[in-house]
Design a protein that fits this description.
The chain is of the alpha+beta class and 221 residues long. It folds into two domains: 6-49, Leucyl/phenylalanyl-tRNA-protein transferase, N-terminal domain (Alpha-Beta Plaits, 2-Layer Sandwich); 52-218, Leucyl/phenylalanyl-tRNA-protein transferase, C-terminal domain (Aminopeptidase, 3-Layer(aba) Sandwich), CATH 3.40.630.70. It is built from seven helices and ten strands. The chain has helices at residues 23-31, 64-71, 83-92, 105-116, 156-170, 183-187, 195-205; strands spanning 14-17, 35-36, 45-47, 51-55, 76-79, 120-127, 130-140, 143-151, 175-179, 191-194. The chain has a seven-stranded mixed sheet with strand order 5-6-7-8-9-4-10, sandwiched between helices. Strand 2 (35-36) and strand 3 form a beta hairpin. Helix 3 packs antiparallel against helix 4 (105-116). The longest helix has 15 residues, at 156-170. The termini are far apart.
């Protein structure tokens, strides 16, 4: 399935339906500013929203409570250590105001395959040796396409994003794609831009080589 031009998307960003979640199709989607997002009883839906939400790696806003926890070393961090545990936790953790999950078993399988091929990555946050939070996404060029994050301990998902921003800043990444804006993301330092601006920036960042493979060697000291 070839994707139609993103300008043909509906007002909510819906662009196409159908196809599969093969690695080739997923990477092609990300390279064109498109991502999958659907529920259990619908076909695979592909989106390219007219307004995009992103983080610059140096723009994360650290709350006072998170700053204290980081200063006191409440959390420890790892990269690509427990990818499958992170994506399954993102799928299973209940979220306020939501029922069910869009991270279906076939999504877990597809992104785990991308992880094994070196394109999808996870951040793990540990508290007293237990997985307390984390996030996962896909990396191409100097962009990280965030998919989901979770926490079992207060501030653990924010800590994961803080750690990711610091890691990507050291690697000269241009942005983290947060897809659709929310008040929560904006409160953490995210900004919005038009799809036209986003696609221009995406094209520029994809001209750089992708850091493939396990990211454990990128861990902060």
């Amino acid at each position: 399935m070839d994707f139609p031009p993103v300008e043909e998307s509906l007002d909510d960003g819906l662009l196409a339906a159908g196809g599969d979640l093969s690695g080739k199709r997923l990477l092609n989607a990300y390279c064109n500013g498109i991502f999958p997002w659907y529920s259990e009883f619908s076909p695979i839906l592909w989106y390219s929203p007219p307004v995009r939400c992103i983080f610059r790696p140096d723009s994360f806003i650290t709350s006072h409570s998170l700053m204290l926890k980081l200063k006191n070393n409440n959390f420890t961090f790892s990269l690509d250590k427990e990818f499958e545990s992170v994506i399954k936790a993102c799928a299973s953790v209940k979220r306020k105001g939501e029922s069910g999950t869009w991270i279906l078993p076939e999504m877990i399988d597809a992104y785990t395959a991308l992880h094994k091929s070196g394109y999808a990555h996870s951040v793990e946050v540990w508290d007293k040796g237990k997985l307390a939070g984390g996030l996962y996404g896909v990396s191409l060029g100097r962009a990280f396409f965030g998919e989901s994050m979770f926490h079992k301990v207060t501030d653990a998902s924010k800590a994961a994003l803080h750690y990711l921003c610091n890691t990507l800043q050291r690697q000269n990444f241009n942005f983290i794609d947060a897809q659709n804006e929310t008040g929560h993301l904006l409160s953490l330092g995210a900004v919005t831009m038009s799809r036209t601006e986003y696609l221009k920036m995406l094209g520029q960042t994809l001209s750089y080589p992708t850091i493939r493979g396990n990211w454990k060697n990128l861990q902060s000291q």
